[in-house]
Specification:
This protein is an all-alpha fold. The protein is built from 4 helices and no strands. It has one domain. Helix 1 runs antiparallel to helix 2, helix 2 crosses helix 3 and helix 2 runs antiparallel to helix 4. Pfam families: DUF1825. InterPro entries: DUF1825. This is DUF1825 family protein.
Length: 106
């Protein structure tokens, strides 16, 4: 069975994508959030990023051809912006840390 043939993988990918999309939409109003709302948003974004990191690691460790192609496609897309997957995750982490620091200053 291929990596993407697993119903669990499909469900997890769909849930992760939906959660990320919802947070991105919600994030457009981030500036209107009160301090507690900003904390909750950051916590949820950190949780989604960790889930994404784990999901991507599963792709990397899989022997499945399609999983490996997905990893290569991501690397190619990120390379166009001068990033590696690790640099992408590091940048996301720095952004969230900066957001946390801004909350503490308020």
């Amino acid at each position: 069975m291929g990596f993407f043939d697993s119903e669990i993988v499909q469900q997890e990918a769909m849930k992760l994508f939906q959660d990320y999309q919802s947070l991105m939409q919600l994030g457009s109003d981030y500036g209107k959030f009160d301090r507690e709302g900003k904390k909750i948003y950051i916590d949820q974004m950190e949780a989604v990023m960790e889930r994404y990191r784990i999901f991507m690691k599963r792709f990397e460790l899989s022997d499945d051809f399609m999983a490996q192609m997905t990893v290569e496609q991501l690397k190619t897309q990120l390379d166009q912006f001068g990033f590696t997957p690790q640099q992408m995750f590091d940048q996301m982490h720095r952004t969230l840390e900066r957001m946390k620091a801004e909350i503490k200053e308020d």
